[in-house]
Design brief:
alpha+beta, 6-stranded mixed sheet, disordered N terminus, globular
């Protein structure tokens, strides 16, 4: 994926955006990187769209006006702890349900209300809003009712009623405000480490001696101390209550038959619905406000808990490869993740009845694996074949990872920045300023690259590049335009919603992920004082502009070569998928730069920058999964298909793929892993239900308000279904496999459900016998079984 590959450190979730590659039961490949339906806007998708008409920010915002649910006013940063808001109101407001007119929230989704006190001043026609019973992590009653805003650093004040008429507003008005603290407030993020542990990390606070991490129970509005540390990170294993549980467990069962030193589970107590935050402190008693909250439920599909209890442990076969290649791991959300079994370093024990018991481990996880037993193989033969088990594991291991994080969007500004008096009289109305038509836009694009240029909201771009812009909001489009122009400073004046760091982070991810011609961003920082983003790109502006034009030319050439008149959308998709599989090669050298935590180092991006852009696969025929997904997107766009990029994990490592719209329904497509000799196209137009067995999606590539519009819940255009290669049972599967093996020597079938190892071996043996072949190689990838005649 791209080199800025984690969700920004903003209020709430910070999800790893991943870079790199991975393998499946054959050799899956991953590495990472939209188009539009009615919820989105693809510039130039309609002949009615004239990009040259969008020549000001106010026109850009008007384009999305009907989609915006709220209006934002100027933010109010670093207010006093006991700040009181004052509004001028009309007589009609007093006669309305005035207490429904204003609410204060502690989250950007406006779900968690804060207790406030609204007082009327009839003589002066004013109301005041002040804190009432507020949250304090100290959990002391007097700290909750002391007239301050408590421990939180940031709030969202939402006005629902017109202060003059008392009528409900069509669009509620939002004011983001922060509270000044003794120390700057850290920004927290959550992720899953390369060892599978739930991990929290946070930004450094100057002057802080140590940090306290708290677990917050939303229902009880109560916080308990989980970790005290001088470090800038911790994991679930560091939590005080987890350590206490493990110590008590060992003490209770130490003198029993239970092996207390064998770890069977991990990531304890994360399913309670609690969230976490961090506070910076000094030895002399100073402290920051609480950071943004991180909720493990938001990445629960990526957090491993334990081996699935119904994992099959007894196997029968003629060689060592009858033992399983994968182990099912139960994730925090109850779904199942498949992890590769590591036989290297394991032990084998021969019993009197000829059974061989094997103790192996799970790649990249600390939890123990159930012992597996094999019958039907001579012990000496088995030991001679263990190298085959190890080799298979190495081939199947997901070579995946996430790029280093280089994003800095603080949860709140430093307490020394933006003093309260900058916002004028505290008693003034909180009215939104109008955006002037002559808003000054700093444009650094300039060069006439790619022929005719157009001005979009003050940003000059080649017309063919401007027509690729994807966005679901004006802020997202503004960022995309500037990224495409390679502007190094991006003013956010005119986008008051950017004061909500969660909304800004959401827009950044969509703009960057869904516009593959942006190139690679090395660093991005938000300057609260100047209200602008400062961007550092991995390549020069000239290099990226050349990349844009060569990619667009190649995408057009490819579409012209493989797309024929009269093709259905499915046939177009299949043609693009096949072209990429036939012409592209995966860049495995990138994995030489994989760190222990699974991330891809900057050195890989510096050495192979094109492998992380569509240029790699389209022009050089060489790249990682991000390049595959983005290359597909550009060619699909030329062919008139709608697609988006999706990111997540495969076998615990970072991965990127596509979703494609066919006849009004979305389908999951992973070109990278469709490019296989055996079980090809196993991930071609599958549903979320099927995909989740292999691909663990992160919902961070699309604005949160629209993510639900892109779910895949259909299998009508799944490759094997369309081509008559789907089976309802093993008898039907056997027929498909035998016919294919006799005809081509290489065959696959999609099953209704994944087969157990025994059921798979039995099916393959029957196929081999009835097809009258000597030896085959076979694989099960997801629900697809592939068999190929083995050659010496």
């Amino acid at each position: 994926m791209k080199n800025v590959m984690k969700r920004l450190m903003v209020c709430g979730l910070c999800v790893t955006m991943l870079v790199g590659c991975g393998t499946s039961t054959d050799t899956s490949k991953t590495g990472t990187g939209k188009k539009n339906i009615e919820v989105g806007n693809l510039a130039g998708n309609s002949q009615e769209d004239d990009m040259s008409e969008l020549n000001s920010i106010i026109e850009l915002k008007a384009k999305y006006e009907d989609q915006e649910k709220y209006e934002y006013t100027d933010p109010m940063y670093n207010l006093e702890k006991n700040h009181v808001f004052t509004y001028d109101v009309g007589e009609a407001f007093f006669k309305s349900e005035e207490y429904e007119g204003f609410k204060v929230y502690s989250d950007s989704n406006f779900q968690n209300t804060v207790n406030i006190k609204i007082e009327d001043n009839y003589d002066d026609d004013k109301i005041t809003i002040s804190p009432s019973l507020v949250f304090s992590y100290e959990n002391e009653e007097d700290s909750r009712t002391d007239g301050t805003w408590g421990s939180r650093s940031k709030f969202w004040l939402v006005q629902y009623m017109d202060t003059k008429t008392g009528k409900e507003l069509d669009k509620p008005i939002v004011t983001v405000f922060s509270i000044a603290q003794e120390l700057n407030t850290p920004t927290m993020k959550q992720s899953v480490g390369g060892d599978g542990y739930y991990k929290l990390s946070w930004s450094k606070v100057d002057g802080a001696d140590y940090y306290e991490v708290y677990e917050y129970d939303k229902g009880l509005d109560y916080a308990s101390l989980a970790v005290t540390t001088e470090n800038l990170e911790c994991s679930n294993a560091d939590f005080a209550h987890v350590k206490k549980y493990e110590e008590e467990f060992k003490e209770e069962y130490r003198d029993t038959e239970i092996d207390v030193d064998t770890q069977m589970t991990m990531n304890h107590f994360l399913d309670s619905g609690d969230s976490f935050f961090v506070v910076a402190k000094t030895n002399d008693g100073k402290h920051s406000g609480m950071s943004n909250e991180c909720d493990p439920q938001e990445i629960a599909n990526q957090i491993p808990i334990s081996q699935s209890w119904d994992f099959q442990t007894d196997y029968t076969g003629t060689d060592a490869l009858a033992l399983p290649a994968y182990v099912d791991i139960e994730m925090m959300d109850g779904s199942i993740g498949k992890y590769v079994i590591e036989y290297r370093g394991g032990t084998a024990t021969l019993y009197d009845d000829g059974t061989i018991a094997v103790d192996a481990s799970i790649k990249n996880l600390p939890i123990a694996m159930y012992r597996v037993r094999l019958t039907g193989v001579d012990y000496d033969t088995f030991m001679a074949q263990t190298k085959n088990l190890i080799q298979r594991g190495d081939e199947l291991a997901g070579r995946t990872g996430s790029a280093n994080e280089n994003i800095d969007i603080p949860f709140v500004p430093d307490s020394q920045e933006t003093p309260e008096d900058e916002y004028g009289d505290d008693d003034a109305d909180v009215d939104e300023e109008n955006i002037n038509d002559d808003t000054d836009v700093e444009d650094e694009s300039g060069d006439d690259v790619g022929g005719e240029t157009v001005n979009v909201a003050g940003v000059e771009l080649p017309e063919n590049v401007a027509k690729t812009v994807y966005a679901n909001s004006s802020l997202s489009e503004w960022l995309a335009l500037n990224f495409l122009a390679q502007n190094e400073t991006i003013s956010l004046d005119g986008f008051k919603e950017a004061s909500d760091s969660e909304k800004l982070g959401d827009a950044f991810i969509e703009a960057y992920r869904q516009n593959p011609l942006c190139g690679i961003i090395n660093n991005l920082e938000y300057d609260y004082d100047k209200n602008e983003l400062v961007v550092e790109y991995a390549q020069t502006k000239e290099e990226t502009q050349n990349m844009q034009q060569e990619c667009l030319k190649k995408a057009k050439d490819v579409a012209g070569e493989i797309i024929q008149d009269g093709m259905s959308d499915y046939e177009k998709e299949q043609a693009i998928n096949q072209y990429l599989c036939d012409n592209a090669e995966y860049n495995y050298d990138v994995m030489n730069y994989e760190a222990e935590d699974g991330s891809i180092g900057d050195e890989a991006v510096e050495k192979y920058p094109n492998s992380f852009t569509p240029y790699g696969i389209l022009v050089e025929n060489f790249g990682v999964c991000e390049s595959y997904a983005e290359a597909f997107h550009l060619v699909a766009n030329e062919a008139g298909l709608q697609s988006i990029m999706v990111v997540g994990t495969l076998e615990g490592g970072g991965h990127e793929w596509n979703r494609v719209l066919l006849n009004g329904k979305w389908y999951t497509l992973d070109v990278t892993n469709n490019d296989k000799e055996v079980a090809a196209n196993a991930l071609f137009n599958i549903s979320d239900e099927v995909a989740t067995e292999i691909l663990k999606e992160s919902d961070v590539c699309i604005l949160d308000d629209y993510a639900g519009e892109y779910k895949a819940d259909d299998m009508k255009y799944e490759y094997y279904t369309v081509n008559g290669l789907a089976a309802e049972d093993t008898e039907q599967a056997k027929k498909v496999l035998i016919d294919g093996l006799k005809k081509d020597g290489n065959t696959s079938v999609r099953m209704e459900e994944s087969l157990s190892t025994d059921a798979l071996e039995e099916l393959v043996q029957q196929v081999v016998n009835e097809a009258d072949v000597e030896q085959v190689s076979y694989v099960q990838f997801g629900r697809v079984v592939g068999i190929i005649i083995a050659t010496e």
